[in-house]
Amino acid sequence: MNFTCLARQDFDSRAFGCDFYRVTAYDYAVLAEELPRLRTMARVMADARIAAEDLAADRFFQAQGFRKVTVQVRYASPVDPGLADGPDPLDTTENRLAPGDIARHVANFRYDRFGLDAFAPKAGRDRFQAAWIGNTLASPAIRKVYAGASFVSFKLAGGEAAVDLVSVLEHRRGLGSALMGRVLRAAARAGCARLTVVTEIENQPACRMYVKNGFVPEAYFSRFHYAGPGDPMQKRDA
């Protein structure tokens, strides 16, 4: 189907094995016409993101059959230019993980929005996460810092740095803080003024780590999922 406010996502469609659409324009008069058309499709998934404080939009999407699966928080930290004079952060664009490590990271992703959605089929979640991690590690446009098999990936653009993925396999050893410190040094060397990272509010270990390292919450977003009749996302895993 042709839509104005919805865009088909090839990456997500391949992972979940059905057409996957994202709300990319928030013209609610148009969406009120397009979403009923979306609901006529038997095997379809969709997602949307709104400001968490937008209660009218929240009610709109729930009335259209979307389910709110999580609230995400964006944390931000200023980047101290003096960090550029510190130790080399040893950031790289290389993929330094063995193939088997990706499966360990997939199992480690318990708090992402698909992992929190009880109706998302596990096979689809695993394919999505494995492809996401693999693409991030392989991308020459995304930088990475590693500590053994643990890593943080991030992007540098427009004077800002944004974390893409954080996956620490060995918990309670300070690896997350150490890796984020290296990302801040890499951002300082690139002349970035601030670093941002987004996570789900259910991920309290990560939230505590960010606050401990000087990050402050600056925005909250509600994430919604939709699955059409007959789609496996409507059924819980056995």
Name the descriptors:
Aminopeptidase; disordered C terminus; 2 domains; alpha+beta; about 240 residues; about 35% helix; about 30% strand; globular; nine-stranded mixed β-sheet; 8 helices
Gist of the model:
The chain has eight helices and nine strands. With 238 residues, it is of the alpha+beta class. Helix 7 links the parallel strand 7 (160-167) and strand 8.
Structure description:
The protein contains eight helices and nine strands. By secondary structure, the chain is α+β, with helices and mostly antiparallel strands. The chain has two domains: 6-70 and 222-234, no CATH class; 75-220, Gcn5-related N-acetyltransferase (GNAT) (Aminopeptidase, 3-Layer(aba) Sandwich). Helix 7 (175-189) links the parallel strand 7 and strand 8 (194-200).
Topology diagram in text:
Elements: E1 6-8, H1 10-16, E2 19-23, H2 28-38, E3 44-51, H3 55-63, E4 67-78, H4 99-108, H5 113-116, H6 122-138, E5 143-147, E6 150-157, E7 160-167, H7 175-189, E8 194-200, H8 204-212, E9 216-227
Parallel strand pairs: 2-3, 7-8
Antiparallel strand pairs: 1-2, 3-9, 4-8, 4-9, 5-6, 6-7
Mean pLDDT: 93
Reading the helices and strands in chain order gives: EHEHEHEHHHEEEHEHE
CATH superfamily of the largest domain: Gcn5-related N-acetyltransferase (GNAT)
Discrete helix count = 8
- Structural classification: alpha+beta
CATH architecture field of the largest domain:
3-Layer(aba) Sandwich
Give the class-level CATH name of the largest domain. Answer: Alpha Beta
Give the overall shape, derived from the CA principal axes.
globular
Give the total of domains. Answer: 2
As for the CATH topology of the largest domain, it is Aminopeptidase
Compute the CA-based radius of gyration.
Answer: 19 Å
